[in-house]
Amino acid sequence: MPNVTAFKFRLVSYNILAQAYVKSAYFPHSPAPSLKWKARSQAILTVLKNLEADFLCLQEVDEYDTFYKKNVESLGYASIYIQRSGRKRDGCGIFYKQNNAELVIEEKIDYNDLVDTVEDGKTSSMDNSDKLLVGGNKKEPKAVSDLELKDSQGDRGDPNDPRVRLKRDCVGIMAAFRLKNPSCHHLIIANTHLYWDPEWADVKIAQAKYLLSRLAGFKKLVSNKFDCSPSIMVAGDFNSVPGDLVYQYLVSGTNSMGPETVDDLPIPLSSLYAYTKGEPEFTNCTPGFTGTLDYIFFSPSGDIKPVSYLELPGIESSDLSGGLPNYFHPSDHLPIGAEFEVL
Predict the structure, then answer these.
(1) Does a structural domain hold residue 2?
(2) Which residues form the Endonuclease/exonuclease/phosphatase domain (predicted)?
(3) Residue 341: exposed, middle, or buried by beta-carbon count in 10 A (0-12, 13-18, 19+)?
(4) What angle do CA 105, 111, 114 make, to 5 degrees?
């Protein structure tokens, strides 16, 4: 009987840094020519091409219609995309190799939908231990500067109002694919970018819960529609370091914003790097902050398994000197990824 080679696919997640956020005042450490769109755009394309991924989950894509759709698709990809609501122009995109995967269904996630769930200072997706940190006996978050507040919120009202807090214009996208291999295995990929402010953990937890709730419903839809048991992957910039509230919730259901509780996770997940070798030392590298914010989570099953992962440079690497972005790395984030085997 001939040996059958297992089907493998590669998935990469990468916050490519929206050009709208590239200002010399934000990145004074970066060589000025490396920040110019003409240079950065070509450098990003080179990185994406060299990654040779079957699936690219990209965040902070702000030139989708005018640049990425055409240029990345010229590399053999098709794509789906969601742009942030409000005045921000960037969004999340999933690019997939048409030769290896067929898109069968997709759904978009707008975390502003959480505003409609607010009732008496809490969201319906939270239990009593997850009340928004707005008054009461809970410690209020440290106030951000007026400039940060205006930049991140669009000056839209009182940040102590839970409806204002939840309206962050963050988005995500989910898609189900049929892999073009002998097994025709179905794979669900979600790509997202959660809110950035480290002091607003309540908002991040609400977004994480909403993400998994939507993902659970999407899995049920896909399972019923195609009579399958799909594998699940969740990629993106979660703006959360290993061990913090969002990370703990996603991998264990633990939520310790109040008395520590454990929720039933709609989708059990493991972090790819923690599962294989431990989380990277960092995925975001600037003089002001160096740490891990980007993850690929997957639901362990008997159908797929990670067999290799993308190695990240160490902090002493010469191409990271001074912080990112630079001539070697066109974003302040590094791409993460892995190769999976379909069993």
Answers:
(1) no
(2) 12-333
(3) middle
(4) 120
| Domain housing 197 | 7-342
CATH number for 219: 3.60.10.10
166-199 per-position pLDDT tens digit: 999 999 999 999 999 888 999 999 999 999 999 9
| 45 domain-assigned | yes
Cβ-Cβ contacts under 8 Å for 4 (sequence gap 6 or more): 182
Task: Name the H helices within 146-271.
Answer: 146-153, 162-166, 201-226, 245-252
pLDDT of residue 183: 85
Sheet containing 304-309: order of strands: 77-83, 91-97, 55-61, 7-15, 336-342, 304-309
Quote the Cα angle for 343-218-65, to 5°. Answer: 95
Residue 120: inside a domain: yes
Work out whether strand 186-193 and strand 231-237 pair parallel, antiparallel, or are unpaired.
Answer: parallel
Structure token digits, residue 294: 């980007």
Q: Are strands 7-15 and 55-61 parallel, antiparallel or unpaired?
A: parallel
Give the SS3 label for residue 101.
strand
Question: Residue 322 CA to chain centroid, in angstroms?
Answer: 25
Q: Which residues contact 39 (CB under 8 A, 6 or more apart)?
A: 33, 330
pTM flag (> 0.70): yes
pLDDT single digits (tens) 315-342: 999 999 999 999 999 999 999 999 999 9
Which secondary structure element, helix H or strand E, spans residue 339, and what is its range?
strand 336-342
CA-wise closest residue to 40 among 65, 13, 21, 55 = 21
Number of domains in the chain: 1
Q: What is the CA radius of gyration of the chain?
A: 20
Give me 309's structure tokens.
């992962």
